[in-house]
Structures are given as structure tokens and as C-alpha cells.
Design goal:
This protein is α+β, with helices and mostly antiparallel strands and 110 residues long. It has one domain: 2-Layer Sandwich (YaeB-like fold), CATH 3.30.2310.20. A 5-stranded mixed beta sheet has the order 1-5-4-3-2. Strand 3 and strand 4 form a beta hairpin. The protein is globular and about 40 Å long.
């Protein structure tokens, strides 16, 4: 594990924070608040782990330069960018249950 001063800061864009809330609400309405809380917390922690190895996942330059994706439990796709100069990972969106992110992150939408 890298020293603490070598970690990247993980930042959730406003849209990603809303996505996380929407995922919680969706699961809570169909299962329970306890299950939703556990899933949302684990999903959030999965994102935070990008502080250690920010350049993992799949590059999606075909949609937008610098865009990367990682999956979570085959239920969610996390979209993010890495800013090496600022040592930041910016979570741009979290798409749950097969929601289409390609339309939102295509070059023409940037």
C-alpha cells in the first residue's frame, strides 16, 4: 500500500452523489433500508479505494477523453476521471442496474 502522502483524493461530483442517493432509494423501496444502506456504503467504499490505485478499470476514451469505468458487484458501473497533477479521482457518475451511461458521456455531451 502506498504511503498516505501518495494517495489520491477521491471526489464525488454532484451527479455522482445524487446517483448514490438514488441507488439507496431504489433498493430501500424494493428491499429494506438496511439492505440499501449496506449496498450504498459498500459501493461508496469501493469508490474510495481508487485513492490507492486510481488508474484501474477500463479506459473509455471512445466516449470522452480520460474517462474510466469500473464495475461493482455486476450491478453498478462507476465512471471517473483521474487528475494526476492534483492527485485526484473525480467520480462522475454511478450507473445502477444496467442504466445506459454511454449516452450521457459521449463526446457530443461533453
Amino acid at each position: 500500500m502506498p504511503p498516505a502522502d501518495r494517495l489520491y483524493e477521491v471526489i464525488f461530483d454532484r451527479a455522482a452523489r445524487q446517483d448514490l442517493k438514488d441507488i439507496y432509494d431504489y433498493i430501500a423501496s424494493r428491499a429494506s433500508s438496511a439492505i440499501a444502506e449496506r449496498f450504498a456504503t459498500n459501493l461508496y467504499q469501493h469508490c474510495i479505494k481508487l485513492e490507492h490505485v486510481p488508474e484501474r478499470g477500463t479506459r473509455r476514451d471512445d466516449l470522452r477523453g480520460g474517462l474510466r469505468t469500473i464495475g461493482y458487484r455486476r450491478r453498478a458501473t462507476i465512471l471517473f476521471e483521474v487528475d494526476r497533477e492534483r492527485r485526484q479521482v473525480v467520480i462522475l457518475g454511478i450507473y445502477y442496474g444496467g442504466r445506459n451511461f454511454e449516452d450521457d458521456f459521449g463526446e457530443e455531451s461533453a
